[in-house]
Specification:
about 400 residues, mainly alpha, 2 strands, about 75% helix, globular, NADH dehydrogenase (ubiquinone) activity, NU5C-like
């Protein structure tokens, strides 16, 4: 089964150079052919993952890339379900996008990025070593950021794609650091803390989740697979896969549960005040992934995996459905002869009015996280760098004047 498992990881990658070469040569094929390449590669990858793990855990040892960097793939009870769902959702999004992006100038570019994303996800899921997982992790982050900035002629998508990319880079330091510490036999506590930090960026956990609602600037199909379903699931999957390491440090599960609980609470409050469907779904995704973090911290790993897969399938369908939801809502109001009854009356009776007003302001400002993270933390760091640059320039001028 090692050959089947290797093919499961290689097939999605094969679509990337094919589409990339056609784009480079300026000879794009027909839209139907482009979609078929990505859809078939993603579906084939899902089928090969299931076939490899059908009779039990499978392992493919492809030898070292270089000393200390093993190329090992594993299909077991953790990776096989996630790999199958990721491949099937990739195929579904590819089929859906054929008509959604029909005659879009970036049609081929979208499918190239989608193929790169699916390939990166399958490498993350099937990697049998953290070294190889980092490669897929970075490919997934790159494809996600480029999909957010897909409509690059507008300022908003580019700015939001850059914000997601910066968040990924800041948190990926944790994953790379965990690999280095693990190679040097470091303590489980340090590895666990670094892995938690690395997973928080991808999973949009508190207080680093401000990029997730802004990621909806990308095309709806990419929002469905990246930010509603698969990309945000890679953070919890990383913790599930590395559980035997960080579970040896009692403080790490507690911190995982605390981060997940804070995220779920914050995203629930903020999501209730949003006025557009895709932003509401983004915060709903953050809420559910936060609950998965809580389940992982409590040691309910099987429940967390089932929750993760169910959420990925449901949220993808909801995001794909979102463009036509408003139209159907108007039809429902016409059928009812008036507005649809609103929800939340229970909380209005339970929560005092001053508290409700404060919570509403808190939700409208998205928990004031942008003011803290962007203006205070990132802005303060940028101001510090500018001061160092100005001091360095003054020092150079003084040295030049004395010569």
């Amino acid at each position: 089964m090692s050959g089947v498992l290797a093919a499961a990881a290689a097939v999605p990658f094969a679509a990337v150079p094919v589409l990339g070469a056609l784009s480079w040569l300026g000879r794009p094929p027909a839209e139907r052919a482009v979609a078929a390449v990505v859809v078939l590669s993603a579906a084939a990858s899902a089928g090969l993952v299931v076939a490899a793990a059908w009779s039990g855990p499978a392992r493919a040892d492809l030898g070292p890339w270089f000393a200390g960097f093993p190329l090992v793939l594993v299909a077991d009870g953790w990776s096989a379900p996630v790999g199958a769902v990721a491949g099937l959702l990739g195929a579904l999004i590819g089929a859906f996008s054929r008509r959604y992006l029909h005659r879009d100038p970036g049609y081929l570019r979208f499918y190239l990025l989608l193929a790169l994303f699916v390939a990166g996800v399958q490498l993350v899921v099937l990697a049998g070593a953290l070294d190889l997982l980092v490669v897929g992790w970075e490919l997934t982050g790159l494809a996600s950021a480029l999909l957010i900035a897909f409509f690059h002629r507008r300022r908003g998508p580019v700015a939001h794609g850059l914000r997601a990319f910066v968040t990924y880079r800041v948190c990926d330091v944790g994953l790379v650091g965990a690999v280095v510490v693990a190679h040097h036999g470091g303590p489980p506590l340090a590895i666990g803390l670094l892995l938690l930090w690395g997973s928080m960026g991808k999973a949009a956990q508190f207080p680093l989740g401000g990029w997730l609602p802004r990621a909806m600037e990308g095309p709806t199909p990419s929002s469905a697979i990246c930010y509603g379903a698969i990309s945000v699931s890679l953070g919890p999957y990383l913790l599930l896969r590395t559980g035997p390491v960080w579970s040896q440090a009692p403080a790490v599960p507690v911190l995982i549960a605390v981060v997940g609980g804070l995220t779920a609470l914050h995203a629930t409050l903020v999501g209730r005040a949003q006025t557009d469907v895709k932003t509401s779904l983004a915060y709903a995704s953050a809420t559910q992934v936060g609950l998965v973090f809580v389940e992982i911290g409590l040691g309910w790993h099987a429940l967390a995996l089932a929750h993760l897969l169910g959420h990925a399938a449901l949220r993808s369908a909801q995001v794909l459905r979102s463009p036509s939801l408003l139209h159907d809502h108007h039809h429902l109001e016409q059928a009812l002869g008036g507005p649809v009854p609103r929800t939340g009356a229970f909380w209005e009776r339970v929560v005092p009015r001053p508290a409700r007003l404060w919570l509403y302001r808190f939700a409208l400002e998205r928990g004031y996280l942008d003011a803290v993270v962007v203006d205070r933390v990132a802005g303060g760091f940028a101001r510090l760098v500018r001061r160092f640059a100005a001091a360095d320039e003054r020092w150079v001028r003084r040295l030049a004047a004395t010569r």
